[in-house]
């Protein structure tokens, strides 16, 4: 009912504004004639009264501008009407004039711009919601995640300008058109830098896109000549707001537990179903977070169907702990050796071991209720985004437990030389932000278990 009411109101506004413009035009065309002026302004000329010349000489009527139609207003209303049409056609709930602002008034946030057809039912069925975030260039990873994850998915997306927004919406509609899993499971949310006032879904192009090559379609969208100067300005001058998007994705989950990941972190098959069974058996008396081990995969292999095959790949050098070569402290406290040697009695999820060697810069992918501290949104770009939040969890008294036999994977064995220089620049800026952050954490909890203030 709410959508139809908005539709009727919008049509009424369009009709009213059009009629009002016509009324003003007619009124101005037939008002302020010479008959409205005193007789003394009229002048005899060759025995004839020349009303038109005399009136225009003494009383300029400005008739030319008065009869002009307000095209700007008409075009804006037409754009609103077009957006409403596309909203209805594509099950889109997006009005760029109604977004909420973030705490620092830098971004506009839009919740549930598209709701998965079965998202509500899945949220009731599954104990855990997969919360993730992405920009246009990585969003195709959602295809593989939706294949293995059976539960609801909450995806926060980011567009830095109107051009990128249009491409992002186009690709989302393409994914929904071609993939029933995404259409059913995924609810999309949006964050933009303040600026875009309208959007356009290129319907002809959408109809022409074939479903057999989603990565090829994405590459074509990114390589589009019209995007050459505008597609990803955040890489250089507008850092990607990871923590803002993480909070946006988390808060739109409807299940009891949230599994917070990046979009290119792929969960193992059947994880959502197994977690239902685990949380029926598991009871946490305090503050608990459940770590899911994450590995990098050589791009030449198939995604491992189970823990046994993953360990076999690791022994052959075809898989290794996430960020092991790039930044070992990222996942080191998970203790992958202990996880690999843990003997699973069956395929049910169990705690293989607690994290006993927590250290600063640890940033596991974990499952917890959404009562954990929010991600601090002052950290934008790369560096100190996830580990600052995990550090606060540790100070606040959360305990971390590693789960087996489930896991997640990231495609590609990463090396430092593959990192672009702008990432290190953003990391340095966030390092300076962390100096203030750790003081605030000490003030908030009156604890400094890692002696961060001293160091």
From TrEMBL:
It is found in: Golgi apparatus membrane. This is Beta-1,4-glucuronyltransferase 1. Its main location: Golgi. Its cofactor is Mn(2+). One of its GO terms (cellular component) is Golgi membrane. One of its GO terms (molecular function) is glycosyltransferase activity. InterPro entries: B4GAT1. The chain crosses the membrane at residues 7-30. Pfam families: Glyco_transf_49 (PF13896).
């Amino acid at each position: 009912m709410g959508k139809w009411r908005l539709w009727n109101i919008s049509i009424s506004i369009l009709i009213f504004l059009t009629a009002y413009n016509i009324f003003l035009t007619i009124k101005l065309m037939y008002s302020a004639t010479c008959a409205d002026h005193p007789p003394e302004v009229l002048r005899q000329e060759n025995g004839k009264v020349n009303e038109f010349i005399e009136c225009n000489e003494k009383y300029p009527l400005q008739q030319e501008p008065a009869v002009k139609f307000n095209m700007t207003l008409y075009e804006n209303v037409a754009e609103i009407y077009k957006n409403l049409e596309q909203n209805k056609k594509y099950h889109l709930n997006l009005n760029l004039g109604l977004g909420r602002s973030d705490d620092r008034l830098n971004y506009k946030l839009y919740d549930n711009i598209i709701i998965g057809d079965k998202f509500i039912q899945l949220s009731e069925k599954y104990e855990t919601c997969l919360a993730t975030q992405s920009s246009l260039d990585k969003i195709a990873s959602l295809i593989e995640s939706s294949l293995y994850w059976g539960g609801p998915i909450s995806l926060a997306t980011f567009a830095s300008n109107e051009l990128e927004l249009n491409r992002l919406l186009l690709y989302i509609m393409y994914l929904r058109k071609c993939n029933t899993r995404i259409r059913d499971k995924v609810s999309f949310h949006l964050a933009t830098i303040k600026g875009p006032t309208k959007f356009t879904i290129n319907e002809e192009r959408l109809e022409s896109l074939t479903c057999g090559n989603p990565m090829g379609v994405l590459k074509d969208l990114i390589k589009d000549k019209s995007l050459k100067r505008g597609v990803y300005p955040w890489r250089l001058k507008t850092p990607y707001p990871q923590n803002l998007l993480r909070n946006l994705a988390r808060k739109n989950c409807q299940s009891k537990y949230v599994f917070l990941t990046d979009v290119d972190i792929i969960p193992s098959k059947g994880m959502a179903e197994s977690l239902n069974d685990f949380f029926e058996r598991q009871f946490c008396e305090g503050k608990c977070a459940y770590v899911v081990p994450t590995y990098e995969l050589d791009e030449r292999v198939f995604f491992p169907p189970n823990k046994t095959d993953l360990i076999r790949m690791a022994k052959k050098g075809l898989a290794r702990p996430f960020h092991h070569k790039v930044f070992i402290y990222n996942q080191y406290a998970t203790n992958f050796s202990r996880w690999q040697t843990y003997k699973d009695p069956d395929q049910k999820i169990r705690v293989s071991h607690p994290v006993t060697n927590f250290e600063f810069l640890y940033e596991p992918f974990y499952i917890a209720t959404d009562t954990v501290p929010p991600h601090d949104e002052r950290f934008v770009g790369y560096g100190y985004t996830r580990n600052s939040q995990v550090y606060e969890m540790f100070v606040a008294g959360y305990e971390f437990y590693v789960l087996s036999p489930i896991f997640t994977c990231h495609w590609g064995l990463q090396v430092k030389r593959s990192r672009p220089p702008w990432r290190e620049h953003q990391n340095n800026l966030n390092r300076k932000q962390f100096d203030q952050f750790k003081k605030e954490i000490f003030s908030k909890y009156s604890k400094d278990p890692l002696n961060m203030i001293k160091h």
